[in-house]
Specification:
This protein has about 700 residues and is of the alpha+beta class. The protein contains 21 helices and 20 strands. Strands 1, 2, 3, 4 and 7 form a 5-stranded mixed sheet that branches. Helix 13 crosses helix 14. It folds into 2 domains: about 140 residues, Penicillin-binding protein 2a (Domain 2); about 400 residues, DD-peptidase/beta-lactamase superfamily (Beta-lactamase).
């Protein structure tokens, strides 16, 4: 194709940048469009059309997808199921791992011991570049640290390759100290996670709880006894029988008595009379359980369980219960207390001699050593031994604490007249305070002995199975005579307004380091139960070697020292235990119903021992020996008849750390306080 420009047509535009020529006429140009050019243009137009169609198709497709997406996500979204959501969420357990040692609580769930997370500080001395500088930095963060000792542990003065690879620097790191040390960034010093046993109440129930070592292992008390139970991956707390509130009251009242009478120590126990549960047990001096390792041995010693002491006249509860239950003695029988009893070169006397014949209730009421000895002589050693065997006075106590000792008592081969008489009023035998109170449970609860326990008894679960020790009637009589003791006898200082309290005083003279009895040095105690119309609880307080003051009129007997403490304890814990005081006529009526005459007359048709008839049939020859007469010849037993007495093996006294005196009386020695035996010629409570 050719393009021709005519003269009458305007000239084509000059190319940009072409020089102007005056009056010049541009040259004619011919442009030829060939067929291939047209074919190429057609191909390009066709391709362009296809691209437009493709673009429209893609645009439509994306429009559909956009509409579908908008429908699914905005207009009508398809939500995932709960299971899908749960499956997509990370499972994060924020619960800390259970402690390796279970908690210990009181009977009401109050925490007494708990394991808390902590840290230990250790080091690899080979990685510490400058031990002396590191020790000084640690001292700035931990004021109690010894710089020289720490530097030595870290290897000061020793080449790094010859130092130890591991040393503990502090195994009881506090959280504040951990933060301070961590901020120092000392090379070679590290932390190790651990658990720290914590006792929120410090010294409360210290000897019951015991304590743990630095590694968390139980070293004393229930922490040691229940070591396997507490670490058996059982997260259930160990529920003890004690009540933290009652424990606190008992501890405070005992501490007040120990302080007032300048005593080196003491013990107080509260027990449930029908289960054997120990609601409170305090031994002084004690210690903060959190720092068991730094407590001295005297404070760690549990006087309630591991101490063995002569019980003194509290033991007359056993003698009179034994006599009444045997049927050989009745409560209306009278015994000669007009003069001291001479045994060898010793004499048994009373605190306030009455010079009269006393009936059984008055013997207990005024705490007559002579009367108790007369009764024991009638019974003899076989009946005594059999009774004490039932009461488990010849074996270690069964209690959930490590290492109760074996009681100290005369050898059975050496249980003669002196031992028979002195044991009757609590001399010549040494047992723990917990054994003494446990043996009183059957005296007040109807005759059933329960083993003591530090574990809570579920009131809705199986109940402890006790063993009958005496008849119900014997227990009923003993309760009335114990009530007399508090109303009119040696225990008057234990009386509590509104409560009917029964009890018995005890005073035991102390043996010194050289084996002789210390003058004017006693252990004073009081045993009580309440309420006596239906005894629920038994309380025992023992104050060791008290010194008199103005309130005791110069005496150190159980009636002046321990009885008031028991009274204060009952007044404070009675309402807590749900035992409300009686008032007015109700109290007077109870007092009358729960006592017996001190000078009784025998029931019609009944025989009564007295001046004209002093001994019952079958009385032991010791009773005749005291009277200076010859016992009647016993009938000859058949040749094949076996001895029906107690079959107990002799216990060599020397094997138990005892000292046998020339008259056969034991002088047992306590591991802490020296011995605590009442001298044969010592005076007892009397009107104290």
């Amino acid at each position: 194709m050719t393009l021709t420009l005519r003269p009458d047509q305007p000239p084509p535009s000059r190319r940009k940048g072409a020089p102007e020529r005056g009056g010049a006429v541009p040259l004619m140009e011919n442009v030829r469009v060939t067929a291939p050019d047209l074919d190429q243009r057609r191909v390009l137009d066709k391709a362009r059309g296809r691209m437009v169609v493709a673009a429209l198709l893609f645009l439509g497709l994306y429009g559909v997808l956009a509409a579908k997406l908008a429908w699914s996500t905005v207009v009508h979204p398809l939500l995932p199921s709960a299971a899908q959501i749960a499956a997509m969420q990370p499972q994060l357990d924020m619960t800390p791992p259970p402690p390796s040692r279970a908690d210990i609580t009181d009977r009401n769930g109050t925490i007494l011991a708990v394991s808390l997370p902590g840290a230990e500080l250790y080091a690899d001395p080979q990685q510490v570049p400058d031990p002396q500088a590191a020790a000084q930095l640690l001292a700035n963060a931990m004021p109690d640290i010894d710089v020289a000792q720490t530097a030595q542990k870290l290897g000061a003065g020793v080449p790094p390759e010859k130092r130890k690879e591991f040393v503990y620097l502090d195994r009881k790191l506090t959280p504040q100290e951990e933060l301070a040390v961590n901020s120092l960034g000392i090379p070679g010093v590290y932390f190790e996670n651990n658990e720290k046993r914590h006792y929120p109440d410090g010294n409360l129930a210290a000897h019951i709880l015991g304590g743990v070592k630095v590694d968390g292992t139980g070293v004393a008390g229930v922490e040691q006894y229940f070591q396997q139970t507490l670490t058996s991956n059982n997260t259930q707390p160990l529920a003890l029988s004690i009540d933290a509130g009652i424990q606190s009251i008992v501890h405070d009242e005992l501490a007040a008595a120990v302080k007032e009478f300048q005593s080196p120590g003491g013990c107080a126990i509260v027990m449930n009379a029908h289960t054997g549960e120990i609601l409170a047990m305090a031994s002084l001096p004690d210690y903060d359980v959190n720092t068991y390792g730094s407590a001295d041995r005297n404070s760690q010693f549990d006087r309630c369980v591991n101490g063995t002491y002569e019980p003194g006249s509290v033991f007359k509860l056993q003698t009179i219960s034994m006599a009444l239950d045997s049927g050989m003695v009745h409560w209306w029988d009278y015994f000669d207390t007009t003069h001291p009893l001479k045994v060898g070169r010793f004499h048994i006397t009373d605190f306030e001699p009455s010079h009269e014949w006393m009936a059984v209730p008055e013997i207990l009421n005024v705490s007559s050593n002579i009367g108790a000895s007369r009764i024991a002589a009638i019974l003899g050693p076989k009946i005594e031994q059999a009774w004490f065997t039932k009461q488990q006075f010849f074996q270690p106590l069964d209690i959930q604490l490590p290492g109760p000792p074996k009681p100290l008592f005369p050898s059975f081969n050496n249980w003669g007249l002196a031992a028979t008489l002195t044991v009757s009023f609590g001399a010549g035998i040494a047992v723990s305070p917990l054994q003494v109170i446990t043996a009183v449970l059957p005296v007040v609860n109807g005759g059933i002995r329960y083993d003591p326990t530090l574990l809570k008894v579920d009131p809705n679960g199986p109940q402890p199975q006790g063993v009958r020790i005496m008849q119900q009637s014997t227990s009923d009589l003993m309760r009335k005579m114990m009530t007399d003791v508090v109303l009119t006898g040696t225990g008057k200082n234990a009386a509590v307004p509104g409560y009917v309290v029964g009890g018995k005083t005890g005073t035991a003279q102390v043996v010194g380091p050289n084996g002789g009895y210390l003058k004017h040095t006693n252990n004073a105690s009081f045993m009580a139960s309440f309420p006596m119309d239906n005894p629920q609880y038994v309380i025992y307080v023992l104050v060791l070697q008290p010194k008199p003051d103005a309130t005791t009129y110069g005496f150190t007997t159980g009636g002046y020292i321990a009885a008031p403490t028991v009274g204060r304890i009952i007044a404070r814990i009675g309402p807590m235990l749900g035992i409300l005081p009686a008032t007015g006529d109700q109290l007077a009526q109870l007092d009358q119903q729960l006592t017996v005459p001190l000078t009784p007359t025998p029931p019609p048709g009944q025989r009564a021992l007295g001046p004209d008839d002093p001994l019952p049939a079958g009385a032991n020859p010791f009773a005749y020996e005291l009277m200076g007469t010859t016992p009647p010849a016993p009938p000859a037993p058949p040749a094949a008849q076996a001895d029906t007495g107690s079959k107990l093996a002799p216990v060599p006294s020397a094997s138990h750390g005892t000292h046998v005196r020339h008259d056969g009386i034991m002088a047992p020695v306590s591991p802490m306080m020296g011995s605590h035996m009442t001298a044969l010629d010592s005076n007892d409570d009397g009107k104290a």
